[in-house]
Design brief:
Shape: globular
Number of helices: 2
Helix content: 10-25%
Number of strands: 7
Structural class: alpha+beta
Oligomer: single chain
Strand content: 35-45%
Order of helices and strands: EEEEHEEEH
Radius of gyration: 14 Å
Largest sheet: 4 strands, mixed
CATH superfamily: Nucleoside Triphosphate Pyrophosphohydrolase
CATH class: Alpha Beta
């Protein structure tokens, strides 16, 4: 059997200034949105709640979910990056940030978190994720 796209979910967290949260990943040597693969039989909401808690100690409240989009974005992994997957196919969850919510890196996923204007997306290195992220922000109506 050939490689497939890993099913994943990404958070587009928007603050009161209409900025979105991205982070620098020392592991990937690039910026990215909070995101991650879905566990077997895990739904999108459970997946994004888990990922945000694992990566940022962020407790997502369901009433802060602005939208879960049907449209997905995908990006291929670099060659020989993963033994099972050729890339990720991401469902997008748009979230209204709570000012009292933690955004503290919890593992090697991120070492720096920043809020950026969506129009400034191109100013940061996302490696092979750039087109997918631009599509995601467009789907969210942010660019």
């Amino acid at each position: 059997m050939g490689k497939i796209y890993r099913q994943a979910v990404m958070a587009v967290i928007v603050n009161e200034e209409s900025k979105v949260l991205i982070g620098y990943s020392p592991r990937d040597k690039s910026y990215k949105f909070p995101q991650g693969g879905l566990d077997e039989e895990e739904d999108l909401i459970s997946g994004i709640v888990r990922e945000l808690k694992e990566e940022l100690n962020y407790n997502l409240l369901h009433d802060h979910i602005l939208e879960v989009y049907n449209e997905k974005v995908r990006y291929p992994f670099p060659p020989d990056c993963h033994p099972l997957y050729m890339g990720q196919e991401l469902s997008i969850v748009k979230i209204r940030h709570r000012q009292d919510a933690d955004t503290i890196p919890q593992d090697d996923e991120f070492d720096e978190l920043i809020w950026i204007h969506p129009k400034d997306l191109g100013s940061y290195n996302y490696e092979y994720r750039s087109d997918a992220y631009r599509q995601a922000l467009s789907i969210c109506g942010l660019i």
